[in-house]
Amino acid sequence: MFTNRIRASIGLALLGGAVSVSYGGASKGPRCDLDWRGQGATIVKLGGEVMVSQSPFVSATRGMRVENGGRVMVLDESFAVVAYDDGCWHEMGPNSMLTIEDVSPCCAPPPVAAAAPVPEAAGVFPVWPIPAAIGAIAGGVVWANNRDDDTPPSQRPPISQ
Where are the alpha helices (DSSP H) in the chain? Predict the structure, then answer.
């Protein structure tokens, strides 16, 4: 009887822990579904030389708050981790700069690549049709002059119907 109570207690504790871990995991990460205009960020980890713009740049410290529009600059052989108010954590490598904006890097839409310029639009005539046309003409001539056999037409047997 005593053993069953211990097993039941351990089972409930494990179940409670599993539920709390799964519930806690659901609330982690950026909340891109909310309006974060005017959000700020906090420097949660840094190493080396990291600067923050506060009319001039000053040395950053762990836990330092950077308001919207502020900049974080990471110098040579340094790094920083910036946590936005929306839950986004952004890792910065050496020689990089980050401006704290309304939309964090986690929630920003992916950049759209610019289309390559079309040669015709730039006033340049494309040259690929010329070799293609020459190849087509040469292939047609070779095909027209090529016969399956070397027998002249006058010596071929008549086609019976």
Answer: 2-26, 129-145
